Amino acid sequence: MRIPSEELTAADHELVEHARQIVADHGDGERGVHTMGAAVRAADGRVFGGINLYHFTGGPCAELVALGHARASGARELAAIVAVGDGGRGPVGPCGRDRQVLLDYHPGIRVILPTSEGVRSVRIEDLMPLGAVWDPQAGTQATAASDPV
To answer: What's residue 148's pLDDT?
Structure first.
């Protein structure tokens, strides 16, 4: 199954650079607790960042920290997100928990991640074609994100 993707825009490249700079400036390497930086772009163009906090109990991923930063700053509609690893790893796809959170809270967001065609932008719905959908407003779970039939 081929997932539809788009080439990165100039704004997407800036988002990648923002995340890269976060982890370059504030990360502490492989043995540290801060090894991933993330950046999210709001629909109005504002950019918010985050860095992971590894902990044996399951600390937050950089993407979740960036989402919280955006929300705390008043951004409710988000357009794109990317996570970048330290040590020159470049963009990294979100983990399963992050994908589910993105689908539930920002179903229209585009995720920047490596694909077989290079680093591209993909709709979260396309990354989670059969994912369960939770309605944060109602606190209920629906069926699947999309119906393949």
So the answer is: 41
Distance of alpha carbon 120 from alpha carbon 88, whole angstroms: 17
Mean pLDDT by 10 residues, the chain (149 residues): 90 98 90 92 98 89 98 98 95 96 95 96 92 76 50
| C-alpha–C-alpha distance, residues 7 and 110, integer Å | 11
C-alpha 105/C-alpha 30 separation (Å) is 30
Reported pTM: 0.89
C-alpha dihedral sign at 89, 114, 6, 67: negative
Quote helix, strand, coil % in the chain, to nearest 5.
30, 30, 40
Which helix (H) or strand (E) is 25 found in, with range?
Answer: helix 10-26
Q: Which residues are catalytic?
A: 63
